[in-house]
Fold each of these.
Amino acid sequence: MIRVENIDKSFGELEVLRDISVSFLRGKTNLIIGRSGAGKTVLLKILIGLIHPTSGKVFYEDTNFYDLNKRQVRKLRMDVGMLFQSSALFDSLTVDENIRFPLDMFTKMTHKEKSIRVNYCLERVNLEGINNKYPSEVSGGMQKRVGIARAIVMEPKYLFCDEPNSGLDPKTSITIDKLIQEITRENNITTIINTHDMNSVMEIGEKIILLEGGNLAWEGTSTEVLSEGNELIQNFIFASPFLQRLKNMALK
């Protein structure tokens, strides 16, 4: 579990986050949603440690991340996987080498042990046998699955996903969502997803937090979205006329 307490973040006179306190649950897909400029990306970067909060605490289990020294931070980062919006694969490396990269950086595993782990991760994301291909030789959806394989190769306790469905067609987006959720449950990972994708919210939103103007405006689950009377979450989820019609049909 990851827990934040009273997080504030300002950039000069600009206050981006205000007194955010929330828990992200282990074994669940935790979604951060909100309009552009609501503070989602800033919160995600604070959780990962890329930027420091102006005030407040971030706990990984019972450990305050911002009390750790450099050695302890490096050790904790070995328990963290990251899926980037653009997949962030190295173009000059093969799929095998991309997935193997964290193992080369952080472990003393033998070449055989690394190969076994890489192949397992490729199998888990349904991409067996593409080890020697380069990112440019596979589709965008396959690149995203390679990114997931790399994110889980170190068997992380915590998985961060930044807009995992960005640039993908609806069918592929559903595949990615289900894959992330399955891996989260199978390995009891604390998974945190920053997303604009409303299908993700409704299908895999086991814990959802809505940021509005830097404030925590709502939290709940996908099953509570329809029944929850909070106007902000209703307006955000059902912003498009099409989704509003679906909501009205569901409530009849």
Amino acid sequence: MTYIILASHGDLAGGMLNSVQLLAGPQKDISILMLKPGNSLEVFAKKLSSKIQEKLQDYDHVLVLTDLFGGSPSNSAIIAMKNLSFQCITGINLPMTLEAVLDRNQNIKFDEYIQKIKNAGRNGVIDLNKKLALN
């Protein structure tokens, strides 16, 4: 089983979870970590590492989805990777997050699951004007 952590600048992770639950119903085995103005990277990184370490005791896999490569949440994941074994994907969007939530208990290999999540994230970015041939 896979535990999911959504980590972001500001309220994005909370909004993402709220949107997922609106579309897919209440969710278990998922949590959020939001970096707020004035929070230190060091404290945020410790919170993320602690949450990952805690969940690795009870779950086969931990997946961290962050908002922006190079930002504090993904840098915190990089720090955690020095001591913990988990998967992290940056560039969170709603299609990616839905895929992660809906497919996490499917009977597929973990690397296939991760690929499906990345594909959903990429495929969810659509130029609607071009798609509808409005330009």
